[in-house]
Structures are given as C-alpha cells and as structure tokens.
Amino acid sequence: MSVNRAAWTVAVMATAAVLTGTRAEAADSAAPATTSATARRIVVSLSDRKLVVLEGDRILARFDVAVGKPSTPSPVGTFTVVNRVENPTYYHSGRVIAPGPGNPVGTRWMGLSVKGYGIHGTDAPQSIGFAKSTGCIRLRNADVERLFEHVRTGDVVELHAERTPEIAPLFAEEQADQTAGLYE
Question: Mean pLDDT, to the nearest integer, of 126-146?
Fold first, then answer.
C-alpha cells in the first residue's frame, strides 16, 4: 500500500469514526485476512434467502436473510468484506439516522467491495425470508451480531442468484440440523 493511499485510508476511517461515532475497520491489502488453512467465506443463495458461513469446507453457521426486491435486486458475484461497523449511522438520500432501534441497517454493517451494498441488521425483522431490501443482505440483529464476530475484512462473499449444483449441498435441509448453535 503506498504511503499516500495509507494516509488517505487513515484519514477516511478517522473522519467516518468522528462523523458516525462508530469504529470502522478497513481491509489492509498488505496483510491477508485469512490463510489457506482457515479461508472463510460467506455464500448467499438469493433464491433460497439463506446465508452460510464456511471455514474451508466446514459449515459454521446458516442464517435466514432478506434480499433485494425485484426493483432493487441484490448484486450477483464474488465480493469481499471491505469494512465492519458496530452500531452504524445510516445515510441515504440526504437522510441521516443515528444508531438505535429505528436504524434501517440495524446494529452491524459489513460493507462489500461493490459500492453501496453490504450485509447488515434491520429494524424490520419481519422482512427476513423475503425479497424486501434495496439490494443489501439483511439479517435479524441478533444473527448479524453473531455473524459480525466471526467475519473479518477480506473475507470472500459469494452472492448467487440461483441454487447451483455446486452450492446446493450447503443449503440442503439435512445440513441445517448439523449447524444449529455453532455461533451460540
């Protein structure tokens, strides 16, 4: 990372912390977040509205999620987690909502490498299991708080539009019983 980019990144993160009153972490390209032995990834089946956390080939946890509605679909592809924010402030179209019960992104934000999208909590838990978001991946606040503790900047996030033969085993019902409580 060049000195100018490093200084810019620190300045942006410090400004974000001052403006939002939260702590944010940026990915550091000089130090990988995972090693090949402990590679962690998040796989989301948009059609199943499920998220699975994998470490290597082992399923660590599975969560129900809300995904983008038809007018504002979730992006599809492979991304990385670029930042993590506890108790985020919500900014959208000139609106600013402080951390708290009415915050649309809930209690945690994990920003993705596709601008404007992330994995976050919600103030509308009844939306979980449906295509109701503006493209982000929503979890219940209790679930996103558990997930947040195990996700690092640099972790890979795969968003799949359909359940392919390669990811089908991750979302099979018999697998659900084997992963219950791993993050509890």
Answer: 97
